[in-house]
Amino acid sequence: MSIEFPIWSVGRRKNSRARVRLIKGTGHFVINDRTLENFFGGHAEAKWAAMRPFEVAKNASQFDVYVDVSGGGVSGQSEAIAHGLARAFSQLDNGIRVSMRKQGLLTRDSRMVERKKPGRPKARKRFQFSKR
Questions:
Q1: N- to C-terminal Cα distance for the chain?
Q2: What are phi and psi of 17, to 5 degrees?
Q3: Which residues make Cβ contacts (< 8 Å) with residue 94, sequence separation at least 6?
Protein backbone atom coordinates (compact mmCIF):
# COMPACT_ATOMS: atom_id res chain seq x y z
CA MET A 1 0.00 0.00 0.00
CA SER A 2 1.54 3.31 -1.02
CA ILE A 3 0.87 6.44 0.99
CA GLU A 4 0.18 9.76 -0.73
CA PHE A 5 2.02 12.66 0.88
CA PRO A 6 1.24 15.14 2.36
CA ILE A 7 -1.05 13.53 4.93
CA TRP A 8 -3.66 15.92 6.35
CA SER A 9 -5.59 15.39 9.56
CA VAL A 10 -7.51 17.39 12.14
CA GLY A 11 -7.25 17.15 15.92
CA ARG A 12 -9.66 18.69 18.41
CA ARG A 13 -9.76 19.28 22.16
CA LYS A 14 -11.98 21.67 24.15
CA ASN A 15 -12.30 24.72 21.85
CA SER A 16 -9.01 24.10 20.01
CA ARG A 17 -8.67 22.92 16.42
CA ALA A 18 -5.36 21.73 14.96
CA ARG A 19 -4.86 21.07 11.25
CA VAL A 20 -1.82 18.81 10.87
CA ARG A 21 0.17 18.26 7.66
CA LEU A 22 2.71 15.41 7.63
CA ILE A 23 5.43 15.38 4.94
CA LYS A 24 8.47 13.15 4.45
CA GLY A 25 11.46 15.15 5.63
CA THR A 26 14.06 15.65 8.31
CA GLY A 27 12.07 16.26 11.51
CA HIS A 28 11.03 19.92 11.37
CA PHE A 29 8.12 20.76 13.67
CA VAL A 30 6.37 24.05 12.86
CA ILE A 31 3.29 25.38 14.68
CA ASN A 32 1.68 28.56 13.30
CA ASP A 33 4.96 29.47 11.55
CA ARG A 34 6.92 29.10 14.83
CA THR A 35 9.07 26.34 16.29
CA LEU A 36 7.75 24.02 18.98
CA GLU A 37 9.93 25.61 21.70
CA ASN A 38 8.98 29.12 20.61
CA PHE A 39 5.26 28.33 20.44
CA PHE A 40 4.89 26.66 23.85
CA GLY A 41 7.60 28.68 25.60
CA GLY A 42 7.99 27.53 29.21
CA HIS A 43 5.07 25.09 29.11
CA ALA A 44 7.06 21.85 29.30
CA GLU A 45 3.99 19.71 29.94
CA ALA A 46 2.28 21.12 26.84
CA LYS A 47 5.36 20.32 24.74
CA TRP A 48 5.39 16.78 26.10
CA ALA A 49 1.67 16.33 25.39
CA ALA A 50 2.07 17.53 21.81
CA MET A 51 5.03 15.19 21.16
CA ARG A 52 3.46 12.03 22.66
CA PRO A 53 2.48 10.54 19.27
CA PHE A 54 6.15 10.67 18.21
CA GLU A 55 7.13 8.61 21.27
CA VAL A 56 4.56 5.96 20.36
CA ALA A 57 5.30 5.94 16.60
CA LYS A 58 9.13 6.11 17.09
CA ASN A 59 9.70 7.88 13.74
CA ALA A 60 10.13 11.56 14.57
CA SER A 61 13.09 12.23 12.30
CA GLN A 62 11.42 10.88 9.14
CA PHE A 63 8.70 13.53 8.83
CA ASP A 64 8.23 17.27 8.78
CA VAL A 65 5.14 18.44 10.65
CA TYR A 66 3.29 21.67 9.92
CA VAL A 67 0.42 22.60 12.25
CA ASP A 68 -2.16 25.39 12.15
CA VAL A 69 -3.82 25.58 15.55
CA SER A 70 -6.49 27.99 16.75
CA GLY A 71 -8.88 28.47 19.64
CA GLY A 72 -8.65 27.53 23.29
CA GLY A 73 -5.63 27.76 25.54
CA VAL A 74 -2.24 26.14 25.86
CA SER A 75 -3.34 22.74 27.18
CA GLY A 76 -6.24 22.41 24.73
CA GLN A 77 -4.02 23.34 21.80
CA SER A 78 -1.27 20.89 22.77
CA GLU A 79 -3.74 18.02 23.12
CA ALA A 80 -5.43 18.99 19.83
CA ILE A 81 -2.02 18.80 18.14
CA ALA A 82 -1.40 15.37 19.68
CA HIS A 83 -4.82 14.16 18.49
CA GLY A 84 -4.14 15.42 14.95
CA LEU A 85 -0.66 13.87 14.86
CA ALA A 86 -2.00 10.53 16.09
CA ARG A 87 -4.66 10.55 13.38
CA ALA A 88 -2.03 11.37 10.74
CA PHE A 89 0.34 8.61 11.90
CA SER A 90 -2.50 6.09 11.99
CA GLN A 91 -2.92 6.56 8.23
CA LEU A 92 0.65 5.33 7.72
CA ASP A 93 0.52 1.88 9.29
CA ASN A 94 -2.03 -0.32 11.06
CA GLY A 95 0.53 -1.30 13.73
CA ILE A 96 0.98 2.36 14.64
CA ARG A 97 -2.80 2.75 14.73
CA VAL A 98 -3.17 -0.09 17.25
CA SER A 99 -0.47 1.33 19.54
CA MET A 100 -1.96 4.85 19.31
CA ARG A 101 -5.37 3.43 20.24
CA LYS A 102 -3.87 1.64 23.28
CA GLN A 103 -2.30 4.90 24.46
CA GLY A 104 -5.66 6.69 24.06
CA LEU A 105 -4.32 9.16 21.51
CA LEU A 106 -6.97 8.50 18.84
CA THR A 107 -9.92 9.06 21.16
CA ARG A 108 -11.52 12.50 20.90
CA ASP A 109 -11.82 13.90 24.43
CA SER A 110 -15.35 15.33 24.31
CA ARG A 111 -15.22 17.26 27.60
CA MET A 112 -16.16 20.88 26.99
CA VAL A 113 -16.84 23.87 29.23
CA GLU A 114 -20.35 23.67 30.64
CA ARG A 115 -22.58 26.60 29.78
CA LYS A 116 -23.74 29.16 32.31
CA LYS A 117 -27.32 28.59 33.48
CA PRO A 118 -29.85 31.40 34.00
CA GLY A 119 -30.37 32.47 37.61
CA ARG A 120 -26.89 31.34 38.63
CA PRO A 121 -23.55 33.14 38.72
CA LYS A 122 -21.70 30.31 36.90
CA ALA A 123 -22.53 26.91 35.40
CA ARG A 124 -23.08 25.13 38.74
CA LYS A 125 -22.39 27.72 41.43
CA ARG A 126 -25.42 29.16 43.20
CA PHE A 127 -25.99 32.48 44.87
CA GLN A 128 -25.76 32.39 48.67
CA PHE A 129 -28.98 31.18 50.28
CA SER A 130 -30.50 33.55 52.83
CA LYS A 131 -33.06 32.05 55.18
CA ARG A 132 -34.27 35.42 56.48
A1: 75
A2: -130, 130
A3: none
